[in-house]
Amino acid sequence: MTDESPSASVEAVFREEHGRLLAALVRRFGDLDLAEEAAAEAVEAALAHWPVDGVPPKPGAWLMTTARRKAVDRLRRDRAYAARLALLQVEAERAGPAAPADADGELPDERLQLFFTCAHPALPAEDRVALTLRCLAGLSTPEVARAFLVPLETMAKRITRAKKKIREARIPFRVPAVDELPERLPVVLQAIYSIFTEGYAASSGPSLQRLDLAEEAIRLASILRRLLPNEREIAGLLGLMLLVHARREARSCPDGALVLLQEQDRGRWDRTMIEEGRGLVEVALTGGPPGPYGVQAAIAALHDEAVDFASTDWPQIVALYEVLHALTPSPVVALNQAVAVAMRDGPQAGLALLDALSGEPQLRGHHPYPAARAELLHRLGRNTEAAAAYAEALALAGTEPERALLRRKLDAVEQSG
Amino acid sequence: MKYMLLINAGAADEDGQAAGCEVQDWMAYDKQMRDAGIFVSGESLADLVTATAVRVGPDGRQIVTDGPFAESREVLGGFYVIDVPDLDVALDWAARCPGARGGGSVVVRPVADFGG
Question: Which of B5, B88, B89, B113 to mutate to test the interface with A (most CBs of A within 10 A)?
Answer without folding.
Answer: B88
